[in-house]
Amino acid sequence: MTDWLTIRRGKAPLVLSFPHTGTTIPAAFESRLVSPWLARKDADWWIEKLYDFGVELDATMVRTGISRTIIDVNRDPSGVSLYPGQATTGLCPLTSFDGEPLYRQDQEPDEAEIAARRETYFQPYHDALAAEIARLRQSHPTVVLYDCHSIRSAIPRLFEDVLPVFNIGTNSGAACAPELAAAVERRCAESDFPSILNGRFKGGYITRQYGKPAEGVHAVQMELGCRGYMEEPLGPVSEANWPTPYDPAYAAPIRAVLTGILQDCLRFAEQEGAS
Q1: What is the sign of the dihedral through the CA atoms of 20, 23, 26 and 30?
Q2: Which of 105, 112, 159, 256 is a good FRET partner for 199, with 20 to 30 A between their CA atoms?
Q3: What local confidence, expressed as pLDDT, does residue 1 receive?
Q4: Confidence of residue 274 (pLDDT cuts 50, 70, 90)
Q5: What 8-state DSSP symbol labels residue 6?
Q6: What is the pLDDT of residue 273?
Q7: How far does CA 186 lie from the centroid of its chain?
Q8: In this structure, what are the phi and psi dihedrals at residue 131, rounded to the nearest 5 degrees?
């Protein structure tokens, strides 16, 4: 572990990844940014709190505390877009999801700095994920990697209308067995929240990189519309109204569904491992 990378090691065949919950901006970068609030605006707010029940399932949990504005560990390190032809943000984003510049004029990172950030922050996160998956594979034939995300429900630059609350991504079926995708999809469909499988968000770099069913690793990304677990203003946000506080009572209904989803993931891993 480092002061920004935390790993909770469990014995169950389940790994939870938290690539976008970080809000730490190293002092060396802060003065170059338009504002600290804007740099943290697109964080996956409170997701680590929402999934803290993972400890009770004895899941392994890997989390970076570094803001995605500094480097996005769920992007292809080569810089290739995960969604060609669609608006998105890159490895070291220059704009917010809404298209606002993150850096002051002439203060954007150059290629050398991007390479240094990859080495300092990106690679250790992925080394940790790979090591934890390998550790669990020593005792479990099948492991599920569940990538935890959220996003504001209305961002016109990225998608039309209001996003479903549950956005399940399996890289169009390549990252996990259809039985696992069906179990997650069924659990979401039985809830009171709208859901979709492989819609606007099909899974980022983590899902695509590690989801290798033939090698015993099944990956699922869950992108939650923020309104499902926090009192989200549906429209433009400002420093005055975003983020809203985490309210356990408000989040309780979706947390119950998520608990069922992770239990389904564990059940799948155990049944596959026994077959």
Answers
A1: positive
A2: 256
A3: 53
A4: confident
A5: E
A6: 72
A7: 21
A8: -65, -40
- Token reading at 98: 């809404």
Query: Which pair of tokens denotes residue 233?
Result: 């203003």
Q: Name 197's bridge partners.
A: 168
Give the span between the Cα atoms of 173 and 220, in whole angstroms. 10
The letter for the amino acid at 248 is: P
Q: What are the φ/ψ torsions at residue 222 (nearest 5 degrees)?
A: -120, 110
CA dihedral over 238, 244, 250, 255, signed as positive or negative: positive
Using an 8 Å Cβ cutoff, are 54 and 76 in contact?
no
Rounded Cα distance between 22 and 206, Å, is: 16
Please list, in sequence order, all residues whose beta carbon lies within 8 angstroms of the beta carbon of residue 14, skipping any fewer than 6 positions away.
Answer: 54, 57, 58, 59, 60, 143, 144, 146, 262, 265, 266, 269
Burial class (CB in 10 A: 0-12, 13-18, 19+), 264: middle
Amino acid identity at 142: T
Task: For residues 164 and 42, give the distance between their C-alpha atoms in angstroms, rounded to a whole number.
Answer: 18
